[in-house]
Every structure is written in structure tokens, then in C-alpha cells.
């Protein structure tokens, strides 16, 4: 007896990769990605942004509501907090390449609000070819993982931010790989004092990047 099966839920992005893998060609190709179901409800693909020769690359989780509407990474409330932390750490956003592990916004509609939903491991895995291609195209000296999803995308399900943050992670992806909290985790802190403390911890981790860049000049 034969059973009829539909297409796999997450066929993966690999088949959508262009043959020439420059940042502009990757960006164009990612616009048409159907590697998992997340493109269906999202407005558009939100690809990474920043100079092709950036020395530092940041990887977050996925676009949020504002990013989905504007088509740019880290432009919503978490992005604004991220910019503030970069500034305090002595880093300039325009010199950094910023992207996400997952390129489409996953959300749950509640009335008019679109609430963030964490991507499933299968969706993160499906999207990984884009992230790997961005890393290969940019060859950053320093790779910073913002939050657990970015860490688990590249290092597996056992990756824990609480264990890995703030110290070099052994990897061939860049000469220095660091992990820290995702700025949206700071926004979710229970009160103003917890938010202020988490923000200072983020700045402290980002200063490791500043120091490493100075050493390498
Ligand atoms: S989330 Fe990633 S794999 Fe899924 S459709 Fe979007 S770009 Fe493709």
C-alpha cells in the first residue's frame, strides 16, 4: 500500500542558495526562500545588514514585528537597546554586520498584536544555510552570538548562554567567538533594576569585542 505524503514541513534553505554566494546575491536569493513555513505569514525576508568587510558579525534570533515590516534587522525596541549598548561599549553599529539565525518573523496573532514566537529547532536548522553563507562571505574576525537560538543554531541544542557568555568559545568560525544575552531578554527583565543590571552585563560583554578589536589593529 502506498501512502501519499505532502512536501516536508521544513525542506531547508539549501536548495534556494545561489551559485555565486556574494552578499548581494545571497540577499536576493533569500527573498524567495521557501525552506520552511515561516515565509507564509511574514511580510518579507529580513536578511543581514552591514559592510561586507565587517570585522565583527552579530547573530540574533529572528526578526521582530518592526523588522518584519521594515525589512531590516535590529530596528525595533531590542535593536534600539542593542544600539545603545554598542555605543556604551565604544562600538559603531555601521561598522558591524548584524543578522539573525532565522530570516522570517515567527509570531502569534493576538487581536491586532503580533507576538513573538520562538522558532522551532527544525526552522532554525532549515534557515542555517543562509547564516553559514553569510559567515563564509564576510569571514568576520569576531563573531558574537546574541542569545541561545544563535548559539544553538551553530553549536547544537546543548548550547547554553548562561554557561558560555562572556568567554571565548573554541570554534573555526572566527578567530574570536563570543556569546551574550539577546537584547530582547533585557527588555523582558521583571523590573527596572533587573533591566539596568542586565544591560550593564551586555555592555560588559560587548567591551570584550572592543578590546579584541583594539588588540588586533
Ligand atoms: S525562515 Fe529561513 S528557511 Fe524559513 S522560509 Fe524564511 S529564509 Fe527560508
CATH top-level class = Alpha Beta
Strand proportion, as a percent range, falls in 5-15%
CATH superfamily: Uracil-DNA glycosylase-like domain
* Ions and ligands: iron/sulfur cluster
The strand line-up of the biggest sheet is 2-1-5-6
Query: Low-confidence parts lasting 5 or more residues at pLDDT below 50?
Result: none
In angstroms, what is the radius of gyration?
17 Å
Helix-residue proportion: 25-40%
CATH topology: Uracil-DNA Glycosylase, subunit E
Identify the overall geometry.
globular
Biggest sheet features: 4 strands, parallel
Task: Describe the secondary-structure layout.
Layout (H helix, E strand, L loop, with lengths): L22 H8 L25 E5 L4 H6 L6 H12 L7 E5 L6 E4 L2 E4 L4 H18 L3 E5 L1 H8 L5 H4 L11 E5 L2 H5 L4 H25 L1
Parallel strand pairs: 1-2, 1-5, 5-6
Antiparallel strand pairs: 3-4
Helix pairs in contact: 3-8
The protein binds iron/sulfur cluster.
The site of iron/sulfur cluster has 15 residues, from helix 4.
Amino acid at each position: 500500500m502506498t501512502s501519499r505524503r505532502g512536501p516536508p514541513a521544513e525542506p531547508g534553505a539549501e536548495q534556494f542558495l545561489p551559485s555565486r554566494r556574494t552578499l548581494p546575491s545571497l540577499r536576493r536569493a533569500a527573498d524567495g526562500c521557501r525552506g520552511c513555513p515561516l515565509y507564509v505569514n511574514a511580510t518579507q525576508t529580513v536578511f543581514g545588514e552591514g559592510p561586507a568587510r565587517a570585522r565583527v558579525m552579530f547573530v540574533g534570533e529572528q526578526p521582530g514585528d518592526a523588522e518584519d515590516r521594515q525589512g531590516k534587522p535590529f530596528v525595533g525596541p531590542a535593536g534600539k537597546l542593542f544600539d545603545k549598548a554598542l555605543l556604551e561599549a565604544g562600538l559603531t553599529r555601521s561598522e558591524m554586520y548584524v543578522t539573525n539565525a532565522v530570516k522570517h518573523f515567527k509570531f502569534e496573532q493576538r487581536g491586532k498584536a503580533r507576538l513573538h514566537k520562538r522558532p522551532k529547532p527544525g526552522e532554525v536548522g532549515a534557515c542555517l544555510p543562509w547564516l553559514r553563507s553569510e559567515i563564509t562571505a564576510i569571514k568576520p574576525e569576531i563573531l558574537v552570538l546574541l542569545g541561545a537560538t544563535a548559539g544553538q543554531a551553530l553549536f547544537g541544542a546543548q548550547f547554553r548562554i548562561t554557561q558560555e557568555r562572556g568567554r571565548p568559545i573554541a570554534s573555526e568560525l572566527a578567530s574570536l567567538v563570543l556569546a551574550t544575552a539577546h537584547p530582547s531578554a533585557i527588555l523582558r527583565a521583571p523590573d527596572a533594576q533587573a533591566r539596568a543590571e542586565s544591560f550593564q552585563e551586555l555592555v560588559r560583554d560587548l567591551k570584550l569585542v572592543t578590546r579584541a578589536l583594539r588588540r588586533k589593529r
